[in-house]
Every structure is written in C-alpha cells, then in structure tokens.
Amino acid sequence: MELNKTGIKILDIIVKGANNREKISKALDLSKTWVSDNLSKLEKLKFIKKNRKRTVYVELSETSFAQEFKNMLENNTNIKFEDFLYGLNFRILSYCLFDWKNSKNIANGLNLNKKTIWNRLIVLTSRGLLTKKRYYYLTNQRAWPILYRFLEKYRMFYLGKGEVLWRFEDELIFRVNREEDVKGSLTGFSQYPRLRIGIMGYKYCCYLPRKRLNKEEIFIHSILEIHDSRELMLALVFYLKYKLNKKKLEDLAMKYDCSKKLEDLRRILKQEKTEIFSFIKEKELKEFFGRYKAKWKRN
What we know:
Blueprint: H1 5-15, H2 21-28, H3 32-44, E1 48-52, E2 56-60, H4 64-75, H5 87-95, E3 101-102, H6 103-109, H7 114-126, E4 130-133, E5 136-139, H8 145-156, E6 163-168, E7 171-176, E8 185-186, E9 204-208, H9 215-223, H10 229-242, H11 246-255, H12 259-270, H13 282-291
Antiparallel strand pairs: 1-2, 3-5, 4-5, 6-7, 7-9, 8-9
Helix pairs in contact: 2-3, 4-8, 6-7, 9-10, 9-11, 11-12
C-alpha cells in the first residue's frame, strides 16, 4: 500500500488545520465515505492517528516520515505533490533512492515488466525527480532535498526491534542482539558458520519475509554488515571459497544498494585503490585466508 492522490490532498488539508472528516470532506469537496476510507489507509500507513471520542479527530502521526512530510508541504507550498508523488511514481522514487539502477533492475524490484515502468522513468526524469546517467537512474537528491529526506525516512521506517540495514516495502534486512528477537530467515554473517566459515560474537542478521536464501544473497547481505577490515576479509573468504555467480552478484548489489561496495571488494582482490572500504594489502589477506584454510589469489 502506498500514497495515492487523495491521500496526499488529505494530508495537506490536515497540515493546514482540518482535524475531522467533516472539515476535510468540505475542503476537498469529497464524500464523507470516501474521506473515511482514505483516512483509514493513512492510519494504516502511519501517516495519521485518530483520537476516537464522540467525534473522531485526526492529526499527523508522530512518526519521523509523517513529520518530514509536513515539513515538505510547509516549505514547498507552490508544489502540488499530488500531481506526481503517488502510486508507481512513489515506488520508483523510493526504490532508486540510494543507488543507481537500470530499468531491468527497477522492473524486477517492483515486480513489474519494463514496458510498465518505461514511460514513468521518462516523465520522472523530465521533471528532474530522477537523474539519469547512461542507462541508470537515481532519485535526484540535489534538486529535491526535502523530498529525498521524506522518502528516506519513509522507506527505512520500522517499528520492530533491531538495526535496519536495508528496507524496501515488505522486504527487510535487520540485525538484533538476542536470539529470541530473530524473525524471518538468518542471512549475512549469521549464515557463515552453517556454510563452514567459522565466526563468533556476531549479531543476528535477519531477512523478512522468511524464505530460503541462496549463497549470492547471503553474501550480498553480509556486505551490508561490514564495518571493519576483519568483516571485509571474511566476506572475501566467502566470495572466493564459493566461486559466486558474478552476474547474480551485480544484480543483487544493485537491488540492495551496495554496487560500489561490491566493486571495492573486487578492487581489493585485484590490489587496486578502493573508494569506500579501507585497502588491505596482499600480505595481510594471505595470512587471514590461511587461518580459514582458504586459497588466496588475485582476481
């Protein structure tokens, strides 16, 4: 469920002071039933909360993204967000938020065919909402900084326990400290011991919804966890040990917003200069690989 045109109009009216169904209905010239249906959707999306007394009053939720949406409306009074920030447009802008995506990856990520999204990509690019580099698209943070902040807070919002590493719609990767807080399927470094790469003392990395994950997915999810050189080298051990499918890795890295990190791992294997991760010399890599009885080689 995502925002629709009516929902955006209702939020705008609430920000301007309308606090019940009757006032909203009158201001937008909509039926009370239609307003009620949309208020229920906005409540499920955590944009608003209802104060149920004799008269039902509504107000913006205290969620970070609802407050950022209010900030966006108040600072851009000349922009009609209901003209473009809804439905598929909303999904595309959210999906392309953190990393460059090609049209095939966008279509796959949204479970649609390329024909369905192609026209939207053209329109969003022409309006400056997406920026394009050759065949790749990225949400235009520079031109729309407040919109970007709202989309970021909305996309990463999670009420459950743990640290969110990645989220898009119903798909979520997060880490928890305690086994009793684990939900869904274990992934990332949490799956390394099962695959005969022994590690200890790590948080539990979880994937929702629950499903059987392949080695390429587990590896890419572990990249999202990397914070130091030891974790980086563990990921390299896994990469070389299982001879992972490079095309699958590239597609997954694009989806999970870590293409540059994957490229950095490959640069380390080639002993080339890195952009994100710290460079690790070949001597240190050989010593580390030896501890895991893995064969080091430049790729």
